[in-house]
Write a structure and sequence with these properties.
Elements: H1 6-11, E1 25-26, H2 37-49, H3 59-78, E2 86-89, H4 92-106, E3 112-116, H5 125-128, E4 136-140, H6 151-157, E5 162-168, H7 180-189, E6 193-197, H8 209-212, E7 216-220, E8 230-234, H9 236-241, H10 265-270, H11 272-284, H12 292-318, E9 324-326, E10 338-343, H13 347-355, E11 359-360, E12 362-364, H14 369-374, E13 383-387, H15 394-407
Parallel strand pairs: 1-11, 3-4, 3-5, 5-6, 6-7
Antiparallel strand pairs: 2-8, 7-8, 9-10, 10-13, 12-13
The chain binds pyridoxal-5'-phosphate.
GO molecular function: lyase activity
Protein name: Selenocysteine lyase/Cysteine desulfurase
InterPro entries: Aminotrans_V_dom, PyrdxlP-dep_Trfase, PyrdxlP-dep_Trfase_major, PyrdxlP-dep_Trfase_small
């Protein structure tokens, strides 16, 4: 497998040559990533050349509409699904609220759903509110020490009443990658649909959702080097079954059924830049010439390889410290490079100390209140979270490790 050319990667992100950011090592990527150049270029082009109502028969408008369609088609192809199975909404949280509304109408009192206490609130709270409608909400619980979800525990709470199982591809504080295919197979065998929050996973390589198998897969483009959009794969069978949440006359178009508002045209168009970026990385590293899904898989593995190599020393450096409790596994190959540490003091003030060492990180609960609570973390202190991606360099990791030595 080829190794990632980090200099090439960084040349694709204007933030790395931005004078005001020099010397600042960015470790809050799980909150939102830097934006890649192809996305910025498309956004600028849209706003300067195509900022008109799309899909009308004059050139600027035709090009605007074509670029929006291109974004959907190319991103869907990378993820192994049909173009109309991908839709864009304002954020993942808003997307789950719309989806929960659709399930609210489709489900009957006495039906059940499964949620976890590992999820970010976005894939938890909207579903739990279905209890107001007489839907039974069952919680698939993490191990309070490791933060892991055990698929066997899911099997134990499934029965014919369960219509939907919601869980994260990986949590934004625990970081462990859940076996989506295995869990999906268990849920499907019990007759339930599956909704996966991929927000914390997708920045580390777009997954092939078609192969993974869930019925819904959500991620946020502002964390995958793109614009501020929530991206939502809804497989056709489920999308056609759930009641339309958009205007009644748009109900025949799958990608409009769960996005009631007029979308952000420029940002959708600019999302094609994420596909450009995948192609650029693939080409530069001599990856497959054809097949969007194959190129996506190649780039996914390239990113993961780089991240795992950089992550293991970070985990080794923090796992046995008295002053810090590492949340989640210390095996880099099993987790995303999103590392939360519970400290015996306020995490936000430690993040402030890191800032004086040129390390940009955050402290708090990151809307992962339930998992932190379940793991016995003092929410008043919160956790320090350092998160990186494939564009992070070895030098920045060294800067982080030195800074952690100084402040912990
Ligand atoms: C794992 C996870 N899920 C969901 C969300 C919510 O995404 P959005 O900000 O697009 O609503 C976040 C945001 O941080 C997240 O980390």
């Amino acid at each position: 497998m080829s190794t990632l050319d980090i200099n090439f990667v960084r040349s694709q992100f204007p933030a790395f040559s931005e004078p005001s950011l020099q010397g600042q090592a960015f470790f809050e990527n799980a909150g939102g990533s830097y934006t890649c150049k192809p996305v910025l270029d498309r956004l600028t082009r849209y706003y300067t050349q195509r900022k008109v109502q799309p899909y009308a028969p004059y050139d600027a408008s035709r090009l605007a509409g074509e670029e929006m369609d291109e974004a959907r088609a190319r991103m869907a192809a990378i993820m192994g699904v049909d173009a109309d199975e991908l839709s864009f909404g304002p954020s993942t949280t808003q997307n789950t609220y719309v989806l929960a509304q659709a399930f609210r109408q489709w489900m009957q009192p006495g039906d059940a759903i499964v949620v976890t206490n590992q999820d970010h609130e976005a894939n938890s709270g909207p579903w739990r509110r279905l209890a107001d409608e007489g839907i039974e909400v069952r919680e698939w619980q993490i191990d309070p020490e490791s933060g892991s979800l055990n698929p066997q525990d899911l099997e134990d709470i499934l029965d014919e009443k369960v219509r939907l199982v919601c869980f994260p591809h990986c949590s934004n504080v625990v970081g462990e990658i859940n076996p989506v295919t295995e869990i999906t197979a268990i849920a499907h065998a019990a007759g339930a649909f599956v909704c996966v929050d991929g927000v914390s996973y997708a920045p580390h390589g777009f997954p092939n959702v078609g192969d993974l198998g869930p019925d819904i897969y959500l991620f946020s483009a502002y964390k995958t080097y793109g614009p501020h959009q929530g991206c939502m794969v809804i497989r056709r069978a489920l999308g056609e079954l759930l009641p339309n949440q958009g205007h009644y006359f748009n109900g025949d178009v799958l990608y409009q059924r769960f996005t009631p508002a007029g979308p952000d045209h420029a940002q959708i168009a600019a999302s094609a830049g994420m596909a450009d970026y995948v192609d650029l990385l693939c080409e530069h590293h001599d990856g497959p010439g054809t097949g969007a899904a194959a190129r996506g898989a190649f780039v996914h593995d390239l990113m993961r390889g780089h991240e795992i190599a950089l992550l293991q020393p970070v985990l080794d450096a923090v796992k046995d410290r008295n002053a810090a409790r590492l949340i989640g596994t210390s095996d880099a190959s099993r987790r995303a490079p999103t590392v939360a540490l519970a400290l015996n003091r306020n995490a936000e003030s430690v993040a402030a100390s890191l800032a004086s060492h040129g390390v940009m990180a955050g402290g708090g609960d990151f809307y992962a209140v339930r998992p932190l609570q379940a793991m016995g973390v003092d929410l008043g202190q919160g956790v320090l979270r350092v998160s990186f991606t494939h564009y992070t360099s070895k030098r920045e990791i060294d800067q982080l490790l030195n800074a952690l030595d100084a402040v912990l």
